[in-house]
Amino acid sequence: MWAIVKNDTRLVPGILTGALGFWLCWLGNEMPRPTGWSSAPGLFPVIIGAGLVLMAIALLIERQRILRLEAQKRLEPKHETLLEAKMEEILAEPPMTRTAILRVIAITAVIGLYILALKFLQFEVATFAFLAMCMFAFGERSIIKILVISVLVTIGISMAFVYFLETLLPGNGSIVDSILYG
């Protein structure tokens, strides 16, 4: 069940993702819970944690499927097609290129900066900057596209939570909340 596979890219990420998900669920459950229809501050960490646990389960299920396919391949007689040869060539490549690793590091740093910025900036300012930096890190180079999408998504999120759901946003206040409710 827990055999090591060449280029195994699912076991460690699956375990780490599941552990992080369970930890977020535990943290969310430890936060205070208001009564009535109000959402608790721990709701968001529980939702994210549950999503991470589900992703971890999916990674581990996919890993088991790959192990089963490799076991079947070892038992079957070898008659490789052109497609199988090409797939073997693709799968032999390293799972993470240098560019992909740099992107992961950049996104991790941007998420950390976003969390820190929410302590000092209004939600919309921090979210706009976060989205713009993420789009740039993922390879978008059109400044106009970055600005337009970041503004529209930030306003959409703010309006959805402040006006429609009537909940507080994280951060040091909200521009939309100030405009709508003074």
Automatic annotation (TrEMBL):
Give TM segment ranges: 12-29, 41-61, 100-117, 146-165
Domain DUF1468 positions: 20-170
Q: Which InterPro entries match?
A: DUF1468
Mind listing the UniProt keywords for this protein, alphabetically?
Membrane, Transmembrane, Transmembrane helix
- What protein name does the entry list? DUF1468 domain-containing protein
